[in-house]
Amino acid sequence: MPPHTIDSPTSGTGTFTASASAGPKSTFGAGSSKTGAKSKGSGRRRKNKEKQVEKKWEIFEPITKKDPYPGMVVVDTKEGVVEAFKKINHYLKPRVKQATREIFVSFGGHNISRDGFLSLIAVTEGNGITYLFDVINLENDLWDNGMREFLEIPYNEKVVFDTREVKDCLTNNHGFIYKGMFDLRIIEVMQRGKVKTYMGLPHEKMEKGGIVKTVVSKTFLFTMDEMFTYYVKPSERENMKYIMETVDEKTWRSRKNGIEKNCKRWMFEYQKFLITVWRCYKFGDLLQDKLWWVSSELYNALYHDKDVRRYDKFEVNNLVPKFVLCVNGTTDQPLGGVRCTKCFRMMPSSEFTDAMIRDRTLCVCTNCVLLASDNFKAPKAGGKPPKKEEEG
Ligand SMILES: [Zn+2]
What are phi and psi of 72, to 5 degrees? Predict the structure, then answer.
């Protein structure tokens, strides 16, 4: 159980706890009234705390007709933003020593990048309450009242899935640098083969010291489709597949009857996907977590400060970037002395042929050579699925 050091919220404003009703509201005043003994609290408050933690996944209760998005709170007023961030920030403060991370963030919009737009941002905090922020209606009321700070803070470790384009959009269209992501797409490749999957992982042949071995492939990052295949329980896939379908530009932008239902559903399923995948992994080893964190940070910084976007395969691809296991704080490789003319990153000269070194305009790193060859194929899922185990 996560060691939340939760001080009760200053006030339990009804509107925000309405759907998940996980908060203790203001009952805590009823017991002992001596202030000062902060974290010990009264027995009664303790109980409340436990209840809160147990209830945190409530948003995943079966969808009912009456309330199709349980635990989701639409935020489309300035006051709402202020109130929501009071609650969200509450979970950010003690995170430094925490072994678990429970702030999940997803972004919805059309062609998200410097050439598209954001429509909605969903944030799920520790109690399982999801705030759905209306970017289009709120604009600066959103950025100025907590969202910018929330996305800028580098240490609050927002759990996301590949937000390279989001960072490009925020830097170039909204003027601030988004940081502090914990990217499940990167974490997956670094843990690949170590956690339970629902289908055999793709293998590839690797030669080391003259011996050819079959190893779990780590050349490619998994697309969302592949993540479903490997990490989402078959019984849960059906609903979540919804996020694979594209919501069109008009629907993302429309606010005729408030936020379109399709958009809400999309965001909801996306959050569900993040939480499902995140629960596959174990966190808590400080060094390892740091490595994941740094890699996530670097991966998501790939586009935002480029002068020109090309959206070609040298930019947008599923290859695992070479820095993923580096911790030197840059997307350039350690000992990098030569720049690749395709991906523009500095690489050690061993990445290039002698001919390339002689004429630097020819320099193409091995990842980019692979991309240029046009015949690279992601290995297929294969082999026997892992031994059947009934999920409890
Ligand atoms: Zn390259």
Answer: -105, 130
The strand ranges marked E within the chain are 72-75, 104-110, 117-124, 130-134, 158-160, 181-183, 203-208, 211-216, 338-339, 346-347
Residue type at position 213: K
User: Which structural domain, as residue segments, surrounds residue 173?
Assistant: 14-29+41-192+222-300
Do 295 and 336 belong to one domain? no
Same domain for 143 and 291, yes or no, is yes
What spacing in Å lies between the alpha carbon of 346 and ligand 1's midpoint?
A: 8
Indicate whether 166 and 244 sit together in one domain: yes
Residue 316, SS3? coil
Tens of pLDDT along the chain (392 residues) come to 333 333 333 333 333 333 333 333 332 233 333 333 334 444 444 444 444 443 444 444 444 455 566 678 899 999 999 999 988 887 665 544 444 557 899 999 999 999 999 999 999 887 778 899 999 999 999 999 999 999 998 876 799 999 999 999 999 999 999 998 999 999 998 888 888 899 988 888 877 778 887 878 878 899 999 999 999 999 889 888 889 888 999 999 999 989 998 999 899 999 999 989 998 988 877 767 777 887 888 899 999 999 999 999 889 988 888 766 644 445 566 566 788 888 777 788 888 889 998 998 988 888 888 777 766 666 676 554 444 444 44
Q: Are residues 278 and 365 in the same domain?
A: no
Say if 319 falls within a structural domain.
Answer: no
Q: Within a domain: residue 148? A: yes
DSSP string for 19-37: TT--S-TTGGGGS----S-
Distance 368 CA to ligand 1 centre (A): 4
Pairing of strands 130-134, 117-124: antiparallel
pTM of the predicted structure, to 2 decimals: 0.74
**Has residue 257 been placed in a domain?**
yes
**CATH code, domain with 56:** 3.30.420.10
Note whether 228 and 356 are same-domain residues.
no
Domain assignment of residue 254, yes or no:
yes
Find the 374 Cα to ligand 1 centroid distance in Å. Answer: 15
Shared-domain flag, residues 268 and 354? no
357 with 229, same domain?
no
Q: 337 C-alpha vs ligand 1 centroid, how far in Å? A: 13
290 & 364 share domain: no
- Compute, in angstroms, the gap from residue 194 CA to the centroid of ligand 1: 29
Q: Ligand 1 centre and the CA of 71: distance in Å?
A: 44
- What distance in angstroms lies between residue 358's CA and the mean position of ligand 1's atoms? 17
- Ligand 1 centroid from CA 347, angstroms: 8
Distance CA 117, CA 110 (A): 6
Residue 144 DSSP symbol? I
What is the CA(227)–ligand 1 centre distance, in A? Answer: 26
Distance 31 CA to ligand 1 centre (A): 63
